[in-house]
Predict the structure.
Amino acid sequence: MAAMRKPDKKIIFIIAEHHESRTKSIVFELAACADKIKKFCPAEIKVIILESETEKLSFEITRATGLDAVAIEINELALYNAEIYKTVINDLAEEYFPSFIVIGHTARGLDVASGLAVRMKAACITGVEGLSEAGGRLCFKRQMFFGKINAHIAAGSEPLIITVQPGSFEAYKPDSANPGRVETRRVECFAELTRATGIRRCKFQDSSISEAKVIISAGNGIGEKENLDLIYRMADVFPGSTVGGSRILVDRGWLEYRQQVGLTGARVAPELYIACGISGASQHLAGMRDAGFVVSINKDPGAAIFNESDVCIVEDLKKFIPAFLEEYGKREI
Ligand SMILES: Cc1cc2nc3c(=O)[nH]c(=O)nc-3n(C[C@H](O)[C@H](O)[C@H](O)COP(=O)(O)OP(=O)(O)OC[C@H]3O[C@@H](n4cnc5c(N)ncnc54)[C@H](O)[C@@H]3O)c2cc1C
């Protein structure tokens, strides 16, 4: 890709995230974040789409956002590869000189962002949840020390790469109904160090924890593994729900790691989070603080989780959940 003269206007890249030709919802949150950056410093936004076939994704993204896209088709990306992403985005950056590169704070985004920053000698701020202004400078808000404090960080240089926490920005709604333009190119790029050999499907096919609208989360308070059945039955009541849990249950092998909520698990932002038998350790709270509405069931009235809850149910979950399911069953009839 040929290097060009530095543009007069600033450029913001959004790196699209997708899976099996379906756009991930984080893309629309990244667009909202980029739009907020643009309000602070006028810029042109370009969504960068990397895939082996980009037509469906480009159509979907440019129609929904009205933003322009650069779609790069690379045969080798039939399976995602971070090395190819970093090489191609770096090449595009040498062509367009973006001031900001906005990436999801997701497993895939984190796989790309830090290495890309090293390659581009760019500043990198991860886990961004909001924007602010201090002394005429654009600052990026992120949590520190397990969510105990918020830091507002300004970058000392450009380009700046940021990763955006899912659920931090409302999905972007464009002012105009016009779709953005798409520039499609096909390039050859090979990974030298890593090669994806295939995808092994997880046996669960429910909503992924980072996209679920409702999460029913189980903690040590469930007592026996058999009581997980209560949690799954409760999840069945809520459409678009999934089951999560605290690390203790994952360490015991009762839940899979992908279900762990918290500092060393997933950071989630569902509309409703129901914590069942979870004490509210800071490491767990760090993963669910962005939930819209929190209901907790705990038999200890002093449990720390209650400080983070909208509804606090002081009860033995083995009594409460069956009573809830019974009552719900009656109402369905
Ligand atoms: C570096 C580090 C990283 C960590 N990362 C994570 C992480 O990502 N996610 C995470 O979850 N943890 C993480 N932890 C562990 C964390 O510190 C806590 O140990 C863990 O979150 C506690 O899980 P819990 O609330 O399920 O269990 P507990 O703390 O044992 O709490 C159980 C709760 O259930 C209640 N209870 C008991 N019986 C009942 C009943 N019958 N009905 C209703 N309530 C009942 C109790 O009152 C209690 O409040 C991490 C720890 C470290 C050191």
Summary: Residues 10-186 form a domain with the Rossmann fold fold (CATH 3.40.50.620). The mean pLDDT is 92.
